Amino acid sequence: MASAFILNVMFVVAQNNNSTVLSLQQAIEKGIENNLDVRQSEILMKTGKIDWNQSRLNMLPSVDGSASSGINQGRSIDPFTNSFVNQQINFSSYGLSAGVVLFNGLSMQNEAKQNAYAYEAAKMDWQQAKDNLTIQVILAYLQVLTNEDLLVQAQNQEKLSKEQVDRLVVLNNEGSIPPSDLSDLRGQYANDQLAIISAKNAVATAKLTLCQLLNIPYDANLALERIDVSQYATRYEATPDSIYKTALQEFAQIKAADLRTRSWQHALKAERGRLSPTLSLNGGATTNYSSAARSSILTGSSDIASSDYVVINGTNVPVIKTVNDYQSEKIDYGKQLNNNLYSQVSLNLRVPIFSNWSQRNRIRRVQLSLENSEIQEETTRNRLQQAVEQSYINMTTALERYHTLLEQNGAFKESFDAAEIRFQEGVGTTIDYLTAKNNLDRANLNLIAARYDYILRTKILDYYQGKQLW
Description:
Strand content: 15-25%
Order of helices and strands: HEHHEEEEHHEHHEEEHEHH
Number of strands: 10
């Protein structure tokens, strides 16, 4: 086994000295950075954060400003005197209004909590997307390593067959063996060459799958850092119950389901709160300007005889009146805005009396959504428990299979060594030799696959517990 591991390392180093070796951690990080599903989940999470922030900002006062300016021609109303005029008037108006809801059955507060839990659930969905990709990358990574080891094994088998063919060619030329022995070995040599072709194709396919998960161009010379498989040869310590209990606390999908249920609980409270009266405080200020606005300024006065008179001693005496003289002047723009300023403050109460039962039906819909979320949460827990139990069975089976194949490999190795010695000494037949060789070859291939299968099974159990996977 040690020699096979050394050959594996030599193969990886020799396949491309110029390529950068990609570790499992780097592969996972690159996949999370480039994967489109993960990036979409991140966008949904950021959208949820915006909704949460907006629901909190909705509790702040609202302030609006307005401004307008225009020209009236012909018969119109002077906005300064509210009288009809028949002239061109330039006018402007400005306004500022503000309002704040003082109470509405705590609907806005519960809506903010609803969106807060929804945002946290979206973060867990994002984490779940990263976790799902992580386990897929690990599977693809291990598949590449498995196929590389199988390729090394196929090359070792082909090398051994080539040595035997070369030896039998010499013996056949000397007439020391039956020609059929050489033919049998040449047939086995051809099978081993076909196995190498298949193994190379499997390596290329596995690398292609890994590159697709990482969303990078396919690189036939991609080199992966080897994993020390000896650390995974021991039995997994955790039990299914302990794994499940830990998963309930750590698994992102469980957290997301729980957070969504809490979100719907506060959504129900928010909808019920909208049946309550709404008390709001509002205020505003307005002012305007008109080019027709004029002011009269006293410039002087004079006494003049009027058409009225009084009779004094039978004589008509005119009545003297004082007449004031005024000059009309345009009122300044700023002075008009200051003089025309108007403000108001009001406390408003709105009581919902009847709205075609629309609000109560919205409450019923939210209640059903809450019940559905609770069912989904329970379903998620049940499926998690089933997945943990099945994964644990798969892990124990993989470990038992690995140890059994390890013993089988040792037995077939002894059998092949004995058959090879007998064959080289000319006391064994090609059938005995090829049978022993094929048995050992199959055992080696099965052992390689079983070793990485067990590693994958342990990674899956670590995944459920939220452990570091590299």
